[in-house]
Amino acid sequence: MDEGNMESQLDLYGPELLNSINCTGLPPYKFILKVDVLVMLLRNIDQSSGLYNGTRLQVRKLENYVIECEVLTGNNVGHIALISRMNMVPTNETVPVRFQRRQFSIIVSFAMTINKSQ
């Protein structure tokens, strides 16, 4: 590809379009966290410390480049974990371009209880 053609291709996929893409295994481009909210890990970070995909955590402190969380599930319940930003590349093949985001690998965790009456 020559340089002029590459620039026109990049103009087709602007930041607004790339930020609007939601793929599985990738958190939304922008979401709001608060202290005490429950979150879930999307990537294996440190399996020996119990930080693997699906681990539930509770946010204790929010900083610009790191989130301090308390582990709620697994063998390390009660331990403090520091979650930093990491490069995440979507593996969805329906996305026409390959890109990466540098963000926290967590999403807000929701729980649902079902009471069955008879």
From TrEMBL:
<dbReference type="GO" id="GO:0005657">
    <property type="term" value="C:replication fork"/>
</dbReference>
<protein>
    <submittedName>
        <fullName>Uncharacterized protein LOC127748454</fullName>
    </submittedName>
</protein>
<dbReference type="InterPro" id="IPR027417">
    <property type="entry name" value="P-loop_NTPase"/>
</dbReference>
<dbReference type="Pfam" id="PF21530">
    <property type="entry name" value="Pif1_2B_dom"/>
</dbReference>
<dbReference type="GO" id="GO:0006260">
    <property type="term" value="P:DNA replication"/>
</dbReference>
<dbReference type="InterPro" id="IPR049163">
    <property type="entry name" value="Pif1-like_2B_dom"/>
</dbReference>
<feature type="domain" description="DNA helicase Pif1-like 2B">
    <location>
        <begin position="16"/>
        <end position="62"/>
    </location>
</feature>
